Each structure stands twice: as structure tokens, then as C-alpha cells.
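Hi support team,

I'm opening this ticket because the web form for multi-chain structure prediction keeps timing out on my end. I have pasted the exact lines I submitted so you can reproduce it. The total is 228 residues across two entries, so I didn't expect it to be a heavy job. Is there a limit I'm missing, or should I split the entries? Thanks in advance, R.K.
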Amino acid sequence: EILLTQFPDTLSLSPGERATLSCRASQSVSSSYLAWYQQKPGQAPRLLIYAASSRATGIPDRFSGSGSGTDFTLTINRLQPEDFVMYYCQQYGSSPHRFGQGTKLEI
Amino acid sequence: EVQLVESGGGLVKPGGSLRLSCVVSGFNFNNAWMSWVRQAPGRGLEWVGRIKNKINGETTDYAEPVKGRFTISRDDSKNTLYLQMKTLKTEDTAAYYCATGGPLGIDSALQLWGHGTTVTV
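Hello R.K., no limit was hit. The queue was backed up. Here is the completed structure from your submission:
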């Protein structure tokens, strides 16, 4: 079973800055089956990145993903006010498809 | 328009049972692998389980906390996904979402999500 640890738990930045969120897996994630989701309060999660680095439909190019094996990164350039919410990584290469505990991006 | 609409949530006593439904429209449900994800109040996302499509044997996988108590099934004739929950515990209290890869195909990240239904134990 692959466990995911996200860090930091909370990231404090200002609009216009760049955010770097990390996700570390306890074992190598097969085929880079690693996704990133954004969740706003009271809403369902929204897929941002799949296969570690592919942007989902309609996601601005300010959002990018990178990494392989056990270390993955979500980068958000030119932070907008609406970006200050929760972010989760998930591996879907082997069951169970666990999520990380989340990173809160705050102003 | 693609829609995933969950229903069946509510208040149930510990030890009780509940069945959630997720009706899908706007894409080919028959080919989709479908998942359930839950979120306890104020907590993070927790993957509950998944069911593959008929071609792949409708195989199911579950998270450890729900194994033996929850069952995922599907009725392709009704474009509906189910989550049968038994022997419910207080820690099962959560919003339950159905989700799928949709246009990303099978065995993919979860691009399409419902709005969730709330279960309180």
C-alpha cells in the first residue's frame, strides 16, 4: 500500500507569487499515475493534473506538475486570489488509490 | 452535459445500513470505471473504492476501513452506480462523492465528480 505525504501542510503566500507544493510517496508510483486536485470550500474536488504532468481540460497553464517515482510537485505561478484553497495529491497506479492529507494554500 | 448525481444519504444509527446511488448522464457509463470518495467533516479526501466496467469483470477494490462492510455495484442499464454500506460506524460520517475518469478513459485520474451526498452515523 502506497502512502502519500504532502508538505507543507500550510503554505502562506501572496497573490502574484509562485507556490510549490510537494507530494512524496512511500513507494514508487507506477507509470507516474499521480494526480493533483483543487478543492474549494463546499465544492467537489477538481482535477488539475493527471499522469504527474498533464493538465486537465480547462486548467490554466499557471498550474504545472512534475516529478516521477516517489517525489512529485505541483507549481502554481502568478497566484490568483481564487487559488488560495486546498490541494490534494492522489496516486492511482495501485490499489488503494490513496490521497495525501492535503496542503492548504493561504494568503 | 455530463452529470453525476448522488442520492441516498441521510441519518442512520451505528450498526445500520444505507445504500447510495449515483446516476450518470452525458457520457458512456458502460465503459467507465467508477469510484467512490468520501470526506469527513473538516477532513481530507479518502478513497473508498472502485468498480471496473463489465469488460473488465466489474472487479472491485476497497479501502481497508470499509472492506467487508461496503459493496460497490453498478447497473449499466440504468447508468447507475451504487454503494451499499452496512454495519455503519460513526467514523463513516462524511460527504460521499462518486467520480470517474470520464474522457480520460479507464484506470485514470478522477476528472468527473458529483456534488456529493451526506451520510451521518
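A quick check on our side: Residues 49 and 55 of chain A are 5 Å apart (CA to CA). Let us know if the file doesn't open in your viewer.
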